[in-house]
Amino acid sequence: MFRRKHDDDRARERDRMVDEQIVARGIADPAVLAAMRGVRRHRFVPPAEARRAYDDGPLPIGRGQTISQPYVVAFMTEAARPGPEDRVLEIGTGSGYQAAVLGEIAARVDTIEIVEELARRAAEVLAAEAYANVHVTVGDGYRGHPDGARYDAILLTAAPDHVPEPLLAQLAPGGRFVLPVGEAEQRLLRIERRDDGFVEEELLPVRFVPMTGEALRG
Questions:
Q1: Is residue 77 part of a domain?
Q2: Cβ distance 176 to 79 under 8 Å?
Q3: Per-residue confidence at 64, pLDDT binned at 50, 70, 90?
Q4: Is 120 within 8 Å of 128 (Cβ atoms)?
Q5: Which domain holds residue 205?
Q6: Does a structural domain hold residue 178?
Q7: Is 23 contained in some domain?
Q8: Structural domains of the chain, count
């Protein structure tokens, strides 16, 4: 479900980013690679950082938040295994870049951002880039989406010190929840909901900004 094919002057940079930073590190899902080539990452960073948009690392986006390293975005997307008919929930919209990558693949993406300024900016960029299937909500995502929907995949892009139980409750049967957990030492987990319960797998060490809001009281 690839929605955009951009021929802008930075397409070659995206191709190089994918080839050198993502494929070279083992990401192989064709849908993920196509999405990473298609999303114009430079549109999701502040103008002062645009020239570095395709560098191999995170970048500041304001309010103490960052846009994740391209490889981490690709890794989390591949780990979540979104499909073309799936409904996906992202907690921590930030710049909107991860939501756009998911929006290239999934049928619908709901994304929640606790910082209103970032949510508003991300929604504007997502609309300008024609991601009509991505829906931004301002709020604390600790308890999931307010409509109580079940999701085929959930991604959390800030690190709590524990797995939020309310988000597990919104995971559909067979669904995948990918999230960083920890404080000084963080690890990326994938939790799958199976018929006999939840199965947790540790994927790799990571470094994300801490999850704020209710997560700090959990």
A1: yes
A2: yes
A3: confident
A4: no
A5: 11-217
A6: yes
A7: yes
A8: 1
For residue 108, pLDDT over 60 is answered with yes
Q: Which tokens in the block code for residue 65?
A: 């938040």
In a domain? residue 210: yes
Q: What is the CATH number of the domain that holds 78?
A: 3.40.50.150
The one-character DSSP state at 147 is T
The SS3 assignment for 7 reads coil
pTM of the complete model: 0.94
pLDDT at 2: 47
pLDDT of residue 4: 53
Q: Is 95 a catalytic residue?
A: no
Band of the pLDDT at 13, cuts 50, 70, 90?
A: very high
Spell out the alpha helix ranges (H) of the chain. 11-17, 30-38, 70-80, 97-105, 116-128, 165-169
Beta-strand ranges (E) seen in the chain are 59-62, 65-67, 87-91, 108-113, 134-138, 151-156, 171-182, 186-194, 197-206
Dist CA 17 CA 25 (whole Å): 11
Q: Which of 21, 65, 68, 77 is catalytic?
A: 68
